[in-house]
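Fold these two proteins, one after the other.
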Amino acid sequence: MSNAPAISESALKELVHRFYAKARRDPEIGPIFNHAVGDWDAHLEKLTDFWSSVMLTTGRYKGNPTVAHLRQKTLTPAHFERWLALFRETAAEVFAPDVAAAIIARAENIGRSLQLALFYRPKRPTALDSESHTQNRSNDYANHAIET
């Protein structure tokens, strides 16, 4: 039997505090966090509320992670990968493997959602695309008419 805690408020607080201690020192993502966060005590409390809301459905978190991340103009997908690598490592240190896996899965989903919001830009149709589509439909009609 593992001594790792189940999901509890105190375990989530430990996860958040350990993770951000690593993140702040990390050469890749540390500068981003250290620039963005002015009050680390308030940030850690807010992120503990976030993970409590995500994993324990407490509803304590009041905020919008997407907007918070959109403000960080220097974020790249590589930063999210590094964030997830540190998060996975920390979750595995704090929780039993099955609990860590559940938290990591949620973090990965959240990371994917944030990356879609920050980086996904679908190709917008242009006038040429419309013209080409109309031309193709005309050709299809003409070919069908010739065949019948």
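Now the second one:
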Amino acid sequence: MDGNGSCRIDEFVRNLQLLAFLTRHYIEAKFVDDVTDKPVSFVHMNLLRILDEHPGRTVGDIARFMNVSYPASTKTIDKLVRLGLLRRREDANDRRIAHLHLTSTGKKLVEKYAQLKREQIEQVINSFGQERAVALGQQMRLFARHVVDSIPVRAGICLHCGAFDPKDCYTTESEKKCGYLESVSEPGT
């Protein structure tokens, strides 16, 4: 804010970009590198986390969630299968459909990642201060919801905000459609 109380847009955007960069590259991607020596990216870890929460998703479900083509999601899934983190199970009624499940190695990797992330974030919050962290979290939520509310209604918009807790999805709170939640509610389509 400047002396007149108006927001300094450039500084605001810079801080927003800095927070997004730190979150993606330090908090998320670094933790993936710290828990495995396998060639697993943050995107791969996100997919493993989704399958940990929602086992049995299909390649089509994953393609919709990742907002990529079916062949692109197949390539990602094939890599995770080769690494021994995922396995496919043929659908009992339609052999063309494969349901995806974590292997025990994949499950351990997701648990190790979640544990490291909790520990590291807890340290950051403790050094920042619990009250300040709670207040910042509330403000970030309000701002994120405002941004979602400002987006013109588009079918299938998905911010992955509800990927791990679908009842807490900003998009559906704003009465917009969420491609991820639709794929979870209609498995295997």
